[in-house]
Design a protein that fits this description.
Blueprint: H1 2-21, H2 30-45, H3 49-53, E1 56-63, H4 74-84, E2 90-100, E3 104-114, E4 120-132, E5 135-145
């Protein structure tokens, strides 16, 4: 009897642990994920770095287009966007592939930034989004200038 009670306790503990690790997946579609770039791009247009940084999870990784240093904290990202926004960048998606998982999504492709001085930067990008505390945030953002001139 004691052996059965211990087994039942073990089973209950395992079930409890499983219940704590299962999650409810938030319903989202490709159009909504594409809109997250639009939200980010609109925040660039404000020229307010704090508005841009608000799109990122606190533990996000930013591998930015025009700097080598990974940006791992909100302060790092604020510092980067303070400098980047001086160019008044505006992004346009050229091509994209969106994949959706459970409370995560990726948007990967190419985009072009037009700066206020008329210059342009063509780049590859990847955004990994995470649904946290009721909102979609950027968990990972990698952007790198195109290696080849077309």
């Amino acid at each position: 009897m004691k052996k059965i009670a211990i087994s039942l306790l073990s089973l209950a503990a395992a079930a409890s642990a499983f219940a704590q690790t299962t999650q409810t997946c938030t319903s989202v579609d490709e159009k909504q994920i594409a809109g997250l770039f639009d939200r980010w791009n609109a925040s660039l247009k404000t020229l307010d770095p704090s508005r841009v940084v608000a799109n990122y999870a606190t533990d996000a990784v930013l591998l930015a287009t025009v700097q080598n240093q990974p940006r791992l904290t909100q302060d790092d990202r604020l510092n980067y966007f303070t400098k980047f926004l001086k160019s008044a960048p505006e992004g346009t998606i050229n091509s994209r592939t969106i994949k959706i998982g459970c409370n995560t999504a990726s948007d990967v492709g190419t985009y072009t930034f037009k700066m206020k001085d008329g210059s342009q930067v063509a780049a590859r990008y990847s955004y990994i989004y995470s649904y946290q505390n009721g909102e979609w945030l950027i968990a990972h953002h990698h952007s790198s200038a195109m290696p080849e001139k077309v």
